[in-house]
Amino acid sequence: MTLHLDTSTGKTIGVARIEGRLDATNSGTLLQKFPEWLEQTNDFVFDCSALSFIDSSGLGAIVGCLRKALEKNGDLRLACLDPKVSMVFELTKAKQLFSIYHDCHEALDSFNTGKQQ
Fold first, then answer.
1. Which of 36, 98, 37 is nearest to 63 (CA)?
2. Where do the H-state alpha helices sit in 27-102?
3. What distance lies between CA 14 and its chain's CA centroid?
4. Angle at which helices 27-38 and 56-71 pack, to 10 degrees?
5. Quick one: how far is CA 36 from the chain centroid?
C-alpha cells in the first residue's frame, strides 16, 4: 500500500493504491498506516485498480478507515473496483457507505465539485 498526495483539485487529497489481496493477513497494516496518513490530510481516494481480492477483514479495514476520516470531517472515496471486489461491496451492502468511481480522476474531481456518487 502506497500513499501519495494529490493537489490537482486545489485540495490536498491522499491517494492510496491498494494492491493484490486485502485480507486477514494484511488488513491490520492498512489500519496501522491510516492514522499516519490522517496527519497529512482528511480526504482520501483508495485506488483499487490493482486490488484483486478482498475478504471481510479487508472490508472491515476499509470501513474503519472511512470512519476515521469522517471523524476528522474528511471522506474516503473508492475508485477502480474490480468486478469481484465490487461484488463483495454489493453483497455486504457496504457499497451504500462509499462513493465509488470508475477511475481516480473522477474520484479526485468529486472533491472539487462536492459531487458524490
1. 98
2. 27-38, 56-71, 83-91
3. 9
4. 10
5. 15
Q: The cell 469481484 sits on which residue?
A: 84
Global confidence as pTM: 0.92
At residue 17, what is the residue type?
R
Amino acid letter, residue 31: L
Please check whether residue 13 is in contact with residue 108, taking contact to mean a CB–CB distance below 8 angstroms: yes
Identify the DSSP state of 94. G
Distances (CA, A) of 16 to 11, 25, 108: 16, 19, 12
Residue type (1 letter), 108: L
**How many whole angstroms separate alpha carbon 60 and alpha carbon 13?**
22
Q: How far apart are CA 57 and CA 3, in angstroms?
A: 20
DSSP output for 10-42: SS-EEEEEEEEEESTTTHHHHHHHHHHHHTT-S
Residue pLDDT, tens place only, 7-46: 888 889 999 999 999 999 999 999 999 999 999 999 999 9
